[in-house]
Amino acid sequence: MKPLQLAILGSTGSIGQNTLAVAQRFAGRFSVRVLTARNNIDLLAAQIKRFEPDFAVVYGQKDANTLENQLRGRVSTKILYGKDGYLEAASYGPVDMVVSAMVGAAGLLPTLAAIEAGKDVALANKETLVMAGDLVMAKARARGVRILPVDSEHSAIFQCLAGNRRADVEKIFLTASGGPFCNRPAAELSGVSPGEALAHPTWQMGSKITIDSATLMNKGLEVIEAMHLFDLSTDQVEVVIHPQSIIHSMVAFCDGTVMAQMGLPDMQAAIAYALSCPERLCLGLSLPDFAGIGQLTFQAPDLEKFACLALAIKAGKTGGTLPAVLNAANEIAVAAFLEGRIGFDHIASLIASAMEEYRPVADPGIRAILEADSLARRTAQDLLPA
Ligand code: MG
User: Fold this and answer.
1) Ligand 1 centroid vs 66 CA: distance in angstroms?
2) What distance in Å separates the CA atoms of residue 161 and residue 250, rounded to the nearest whole number?
3) What does the DSSP assignment read for 323-375?
4) How far is the CA of 264 from the centre of ligand 1 (A)?
5) CB burial of residue 326 (10 Å; 0-12, 13-18, 19+)
6) 235 C-alpha vs ligand 1 centroid, how far in Å?
7) 184 C-alpha vs ligand 1 centroid, how far in Å?
8) How far, in Å, from the CA of 77 to the mean position of ligand 1?
9) Is this prediction's pTM over 0.85?
10) How many Å lie between the centroid of ligand 1 and the Cα of residue 309?
């Protein structure tokens, strides 16, 4: 069997690194042709030396020059930079599958370029579907390419759906660990430091998604992501807090059957399934010690305490450009929180204000979506304390 030819967008992030770990372990099955990063050039240089892709892309020209100097005479990998470089990476001829694992809104245009070029997409960048889900899914259908979820919850739903009729699905249960503040009183959340918010109880991830997990915005973005991936209404997606993170999500069918996908939290499982389904790669991961765990517990999310989740559900219900506004304002708010400019509880209020000031456009094209994104960024910036 010819190895699957991969482009990994965002190779230095946690999904990117785990994808490369899988690709290296099953080296005969995968060939890494393209790597891209933003500015972590030391790690990218190490990855290039190991995988020798045809080319690699960074954001800035200066970083590209530094990287070229580091690699001169050692590998034949070409170095590109800038937005055009990412688009070229996404649409490179020899590639079969693009792993979309860039952070935030920056992933949208490269992911669309990959779909337009007829590549299957292993999608970790949920912001792509939050911002432009209707457009992205329609384009994928038109081009006959598969969008394979890498997000653990969506991979779980995808796996529960295998072998079942889509028409028999009644609803899905999207599980959430609840983050580090699940049991902390709402009144104490204003004083939370970035360090505390970055300590996720069950998953090791990058800083943006870890803060999103602490506010439950991550779950809100995942509700919108699930609506698009599986063609569901907001009413068909129920969020349930499950602190043990053993059940990664569930699907309920019309006969009252609920199927759950379980495992210990490890990103490689969902990544490997996206790369190889319907076949499974023997990863040798530990199984849950059910007797040791004892109980799997569930509770409803507190939508008042975690207003970000309520805002995302509202944006998902309204649709149009509102989810792009939610996403953009969230990116600004999370960055401001990490810089110590706003408190943890202000993340939600900043997003709410940006959404209130905005009149959403229905059935937007890519232009309207990008305009909504930049307008919301400016609005959110203006709302930050000087
Ligand atoms: Mg997830």
Assistant:
1) 34
2) 10
3) HHHHHHHHHHHHHHHHTTSS-TTHHHHHHHHHHHT--PPSS--HHHHHHHHHH
4) 14
5) buried
6) 19
7) 22
8) 33
9) yes
10) 14
Q: How many angstroms separate the CA atoms of 328 and 346, rounded?
A: 15
Ligand 1 centroid–CA 248 distance in Å is 8
Distance 152 CA to ligand 1 centre (A): 5
Q: Which domains does the chain have, with CATH numbers?
A: 4-150 (3.40.50.720), 154-306 (no CATH), 319-386 (1.10.1740.10)
Residue 75 CA to ligand 1 centre (angstroms): 36
Distance 281 CA to ligand 1 centre (A): 21
Instruction: Tell me the CA–centroid distance for residue 336 and ligand 1, in Å.
Output: 23
Distance CA 5, CA 9 (A): 13
Burial (Cβ within 10 Å: 0-12, 13-18, ≥19) of residue 4: middle
Q: Between vectors from CA 204 to CA 199 and to CA 206, what angle results, nearest 5°?
A: 85
pLDDT per position in the chain (386 positions), as tens? 899 999 999 999 999 999 999 999 999 999 999 999 999 999 999 999 999 999 999 999 999 999 999 999 999 999 999 999 999 999 999 999 999 999 888 999 999 999 999 999 999 999 999 999 999 999 999 999 999 999 999 999 999 999 999 999 999 999 999 999 999 999 899 889 998 899 877 777 788 889 999 999 999 999 999 999 999 999 999 999 999 999 999 999 999 999 999 999 999 999 999 999 999 999 999 999 999 999 999 999 999 999 999 999 999 999 999 999 999 999 999 999 999 999 999 999 999 999 998 999 999 999 999 999 999 999 999 999 98
b/e code 17-47 from CB counts within 10 Å (16+ = b): bbbbebbeebeebbbbbbbbbbeebeebbeb
Of residues 160, 373, 310, 97, the one with CA closest to residue 111: 97
Say if residue 323 is preceded by a cis peptide, omega within 30 of 0. no
How far away, in angstroms, is 107 Cα from ligand 1 center?
16
Q: How far is the CA of 18 from the centre of ligand 1 (A)?
A: 15
User: Quick one: which H or E segment has residue 378?
Assistant: helix 366-383
* Crossing angle (nearest 10°) for helices 217-230 and 126-143: 10
β-partners of residue 55 are 34, 78
- How close is the Cα of 54 to the center of ligand 1, in Å? 31
